[in-house]
Amino acid sequence: MIYLQLSTAQGPAECQIFARCALQKILREAHAAGVQAEILDETESRHGLLSATFTLSGANADALAQRWLGTLQWTCASPVRPKHPRKNWYIGLFRLPELPDVPSESEIEYQTCRAGGKGGQHVNKTDSAVRAKHMATGISVRVESERSQHDNKKRARELLALKLAERHSAALGQHAADAHSQRYQVERGNPVRVFCGTDFREK
């Protein structure tokens, strides 16, 4: 299984619009290639996405990931700032480390609560949503995407493992955020894929 993160690197609204479109294109390509794609976490914004973490699995997963890894460029006049002089917008797709060992039950504190949003009467009227807290670090996640409390607990443990891995990776570098920013800047001039116009056609 391949773990990927799509990031705008705190880019403006145009990058967030592009990120949403790019994720949709990746999911469509995955479906066409027989690759299973699963979104683990999304950070949404008013205009689109700030970031998304997802997995690809299956025989063609690695080949699909390789076609997208790196910097992605969208060339288009800003749809939200018509007079803005900038026409090129960049986001990045990065591969995350393999998922580490999932924390044991004894390391996690669970709370159950009512799920909200879509899902029908069953989801809304049962305590199927789960909030899980890793007691040693204080990292917590909330999951309500599955119908059963058991499945939400399983997903919560997986998300905690992913967040712990991200935290560990950041701790390894003295200036992890700066290093990420520098890498992003270097890669801006060499996009792996370029899309144009409001219909996001590939160049």
TrEMBL record:
<dbReference type="Pfam" id="PF00472">
    <property type="entry name" value="RF-1"/>
</dbReference>
<dbReference type="InterPro" id="IPR017509">
    <property type="entry name" value="PrfH"/>
</dbReference>
<dbReference type="InterPro" id="IPR000352">
    <property type="entry name" value="Pep_chain_release_fac_I"/>
</dbReference>
<comment type="similarity">
    <text>Belongs to the prokaryotic/mitochondrial release factor family.</text>
</comment>
<protein>
    <submittedName>
        <fullName>Peptide chain release factor H</fullName>
    </submittedName>
</protein>
<dbReference type="InterPro" id="IPR045853">
    <property type="entry name" value="Pep_chain_release_fac_I_sf"/>
</dbReference>
<dbReference type="InterPro" id="IPR050057">
    <property type="entry name" value="Prokaryotic/Mito_RF"/>
</dbReference>
<dbReference type="GO" id="GO:0003747">
    <property type="term" value="F:translation release factor activity"/>
</dbReference>
